[in-house]
């Protein structure tokens, strides 16, 4: 048996088409969603992401505002820019690309973003809202994984999910979203005892550790759904956290890298921007996007 490929690239394209339709409807009412992306410094990978975010933002009909600041920008200057974006009615979503240069306090910067414009869902208020089941902005990568899982499995209720990785941007919010869908969730990490045996219990395995080929084929329960969040640049090109060739012989379904979770992250950023725009204008949330 060989696993079904979960085509995140195609799913993301469909999602963007749907978002474009909703943007056109808003524009007919005189509302154009706007997304501001702030990049501090010149990290080459970050530049690639920011360019592709800007391009896709325009493709769905939204306004894109890019702000590039030198790496040595004082934190106060970045905070002043965020204040201006918070106050700008043309800006519905604000994303500050991470990681920030070492002299900046990431938490302070993120928490300066108006929570209703925090389309990354990283602001402490959105983290708390997600954890307590209130309407929030939800982090894009876990949201994209959730959409792929629901599409593949339907209900996640009662499924055993193992999330490897406990970061604030992927592991923890992923666990919250799975829990909200009534999965039984375990968060595993570098100190977890007998990680392979734990993973073999999982109907849903989400790998978000940032180590190439970390998850072996023998870690996977036959028929399991495997979501690979890893984006590791190696001499062999872009590889995930899962040994894809080994895993696909065992799993029921698996996301590839590239073409899996990555494209969903950007599509969900646009989905959150659309939702933020609807909320800012007192309109109902668009269906099936930001949960
Ligand atoms: N505030 C903030 N929000 C983010 O969402 C954020 C961030 N900072 N910092 C960096 C990470 C990384 N990230 C990716 C987005 C798309 C792809 C993506 O589209 N990947 C393609 C391949 C792209 C390639 O070839 O490099 C794929 O997997 O198929 C990957 C990674 C968003 N991030």
TrEMBL record:
Source organism, top-level taxon: Bacteria
GO molecular function terms attached to this record: methenyltetrahydrofolate cyclohydrolase activity; methylenetetrahydrofolate dehydrogenase (NADP+) activity
Metabolic or biological pathway, per its Swiss-Prot or TrEMBL entry: One-carbon metabolism; tetrahydrofolate interconversion
A Pfam family recorded for this sequence: THF_DHG_CYH
Keywords: Amino-acid biosynthesis, Histidine biosynthesis, Hydrolase, Methionine biosynthesis, Multifunctional enzyme, NADP, One-carbon metabolism, Oxidoreductase, Purine biosynthesis
Domain Tetrahydrofolate dehydrogenase/cyclohydrolase catalytic stretches: 6-120
Enzyme Commission identifier(s): 1.5.1.5, 3.5.4.9
Subunit details: Homodimer.
Protein function: Catalyzes the oxidation of 5,10-methylenetetrahydrofolate to 5,10-methenyltetrahydrofolate and then the hydrolysis of 5,10-methenyltetrahydrofolate to 10-formyltetrahydrofolate.
Entry-linked HAMAP family: THF_DHG_CYH
Protein name: Bifunctional protein FolD
Organism: Paracoccus marinaquae
Species classification: Bacteria, Pseudomonadati, Pseudomonadota, Alphaproteobacteria, Rhodobacterales
């Amino acid at each position: 048996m060989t696993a079904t490929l979960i085509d995140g690239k195609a799913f993301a394209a469909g999602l963007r088409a749907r978002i474009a339709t909703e943007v056109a409807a808003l524009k007919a009412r005189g509302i154009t969603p706007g997304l501001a992306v702030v990049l501090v410094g010149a990290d080459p990978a970050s530049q690639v992401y920011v360019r592709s975010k800007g391009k896709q933002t325009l493709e769905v009909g939204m306004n894109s505002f890019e702000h590039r600041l030198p790496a040595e920008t004082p934190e106060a200057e970045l905070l002043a820019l965020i204040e201006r974006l918070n106050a700008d009615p043309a800006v519905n979503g604000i994303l500050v690309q991470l990681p920030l240069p070492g002299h900046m306090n990431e938490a302070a910067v993120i928490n300066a973003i108006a929570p209703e414009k925090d389309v990354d869902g990283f602001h402490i208020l959105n983290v708390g809202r997600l954890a307590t089941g209130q309407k929030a902005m939800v982090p894009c990568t876990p949201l994209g994984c959730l959409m792929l899982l629901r599409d593949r499995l339907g209900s996640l209720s009662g499924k055993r999910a193992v999330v490897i990785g406990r970061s604030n941007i992927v592991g923890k919010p992923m666990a919250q979203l799975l829990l909200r869908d009534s999965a039984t969730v375990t968060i595993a990490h570098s100190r977890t005892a007998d990680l392979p045996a734990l993973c073999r219990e999982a109907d849903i395995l989400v790998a978000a550790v940032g180590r190439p080929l970390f998850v072996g084929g023998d870690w996977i329960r036959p028929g399991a759904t495997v979501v690979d969040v890893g984006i590791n640049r190696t001499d062999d090109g872009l590889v995930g956290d899962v040994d894809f060739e080994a895993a696909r012989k065992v799993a029921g379904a698996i996301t590839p890298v590239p073409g899996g979770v990555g494209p969903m992250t950007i599509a969900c950023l646009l989905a959150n921007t659309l939702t933020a725009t609807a909320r800012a204008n007192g309109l109902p949330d668009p269906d099936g996007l930001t949960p």
